[in-house]
Amino acid sequence: MKKYKLAFDPWGLLVFLLVMLPNFFWFAVPAPDDVLRQESVIPRLDGIASVCQVLFAAALCGVVNRTREKLRLTPLLLASLCCGGLYAAGWISYYAGFVGPLVILLLTLPPCLCFFFFALDRKNYIAVIPLTGFTVCHLIYSIANFMI
């Protein structure tokens, strides 16, 4: 725990906001076949996911590993960028009217992996703990609500 300090990480905030940007757009502009607005069949799990999301976002933006290296393009950051691209492709497909299982998975796993690879690159293992919980809940939510 001595490796960590409470400090603002502007890169963590930027990654979080960039990944959340399509969600902000979705809140304002509904998609043509907007199945994501239906009520969840597992609201308790959604509550757990929300808590995990707040915790990982807070850790991503407010916890810094003192031993992390200067930010540069690494394989982990490249993987994070690729996941962000897949996530954007998922939203483009969703707004084009495709809502099949592949698109739902593109809206579920790549954003989580984007955060995961970024946190690993920044050696922010504290953020990885709630992020893992969020990822599991988010995947179960997607399967239960859209694939079963």
Attribute tags:
70% helix; 148 residues; mainly alpha; 5 helices
Distance between the termini: 42 Å
Biggest sheet layout: 2 strands, antiparallel
Compute the number of helices: 5
Could you say which structural class the secondary elements and strand pairing correspond to?
mainly alpha
Report the uncertain regions. none
Task: Report the helical percentage.
Answer: 55-70%
Total E-strand runs: 2
Task: Calculate the mean pLDDT score and round it.
Answer: 97
Order of helices and strands: EHHEHHH
Q: Over all CA atoms, what is the radius of gyration? A: 16 Å
Explained architecture:
With 148 residues, the protein is mainly α. The chain has one domain. Helices cover 70% and strands 4% of the residues. The protein has 5 helices and 2 strands; from the N terminus they run βααβααα. A two-stranded antiparallel sheet has the order 1-2. The chain is globular, with a radius of gyration of 16 Å. The mean pLDDT is 97.
Topology:
Elements: E1 4-6, H1 10-28, H2 43-62, E2 63-65, H3 75-95, H4 101-121, H5 125-146
Short description:
This protein is mainly α and 148 residues long. It has one domain. It has a two-stranded antiparallel ribbon with strand order 1-2.
